[in-house]
């Protein structure tokens, strides 16, 4: 859909307020689904502004619910807004909105965790990865139990240029609970530095935009919420397969208070653990007594390169999981322990 400059100055006609819509369609938030609505349109406008200009843009909004953010995206001049909503109760209200913005709003009743976004938009909006991002944005205020698995899935999609990233470096503007925002954006040495910091920052520029106090939501969640903007990097800071990086980072942070060699050791089977850990640390030129939170991105890169090098020489290393070896040993131990008989008791 090509949008002209004239269409870009679109404003929605007068509509029932979100509060009226909630009453009209009986859309009370489901606590079990962690639904917390934003009914203040100045706030939803502010979230939408973090995405940059949406003039003539293609947008996917995840979890539109009663449609506050949806209204702001349309008023910002989006040409084509695709909304993916799991809860059927919201569909009639969204249809009302779609009638008020003819040809601009497409409604998908589905689950964003399985929705094929690579088929959601015309391929001719794509931009080569090395160029500026395409005029396609993902925006959403999702429940916390969905936004974290979703960003992990999308980070893998970024690494593999699949899903929403078949169109190029699609930008994301999403909400997370404050504590997750701190982890996503934590720098070296920070207490919040974690797996999520490395996985997101090696692939994206991650910007914490602003905090929304809990009381701005209906009903009020127990925690404050942050808005985060992600722009995929042209060149990831670590140039190894996502699964390898994910495994390395997971192993290192499993002992977050210990020296980093402790987690690195667990990448290798017990028989060769000591030699291979030493070889990897030397090759990466990383001090084994640094704590996981003290490692810089270039040290993670050097460790990933050194681990990849070892895996090239011994491919079975990549599939090795320390916890599985431990479990097998325990099982074998149990089998070898003579069963007590009545005579022994
Ligand atoms: N965006 C609205 C707002 O800001 O008021 C609603 C926010 S509410 C926190 C989250 C919304 O996401 C709900 O409408 C919920 O039904 C929807 N949702 C939850 N899980 C989803 C999923 N897996 N796929 C699509 N929508 C989902």
From TrEMBL:
Residues that, per the record, bind S-adenosyl-L-methionine: 36, 38, 63, 85, 111, 141
GO biological process, one term: transcription initiation at mitochondrial promoter
Gene Ontology, cellular component aspect: mitochondrial matrix
InterPro entries membership: KsgA/Erm, rRNA_Ade_diMease-like_C, rRNA_Ade_methylase_Trfase_N, rRNA_adenine_dimethylase, SAM-dependent_MTases_sf
EC number: 2.1.1.-
Domain spans labelled Ribosomal RNA adenine methylase transferase N-terminal: 43-234
Gene Ontology terms for molecular function: DNA binding; mitochondrial transcription factor activity; RNA binding; rRNA (adenine-N6,N6-)-dimethyltransferase activity; S-adenosyl-L-methionine binding
Cell location: Mitochondrion
Pfam family, one: RrnaAD
Xref: SMART domains: rADc
Keywords: DNA-binding, Methyltransferase, Mitochondrion, RNA-binding, rRNA processing, S-adenosyl-L-methionine, Transcription, Transcription regulation, Transferase, Transit peptide
Broad EC category: transferase
Keyword Transcription regulation: yes
Keyword Methyltransferase: yes
Source superkingdom: Eukaryota
Chief location of this protein within or outside the cell: mitochondrion
Assigned protein family: Belongs to the class I-like SAM-binding methyltransferase superfamily. rRNA adenine N(6)-methyltransferase family. KsgA subfamily.
Protein name as catalogued: rRNA adenine N(6)-methyltransferase
Species per Swiss-Prot/TrEMBL record: Monopterus albus (Swamp eel)
Lineage: Eukaryota, Metazoa, Chordata, Craniata, Vertebrata
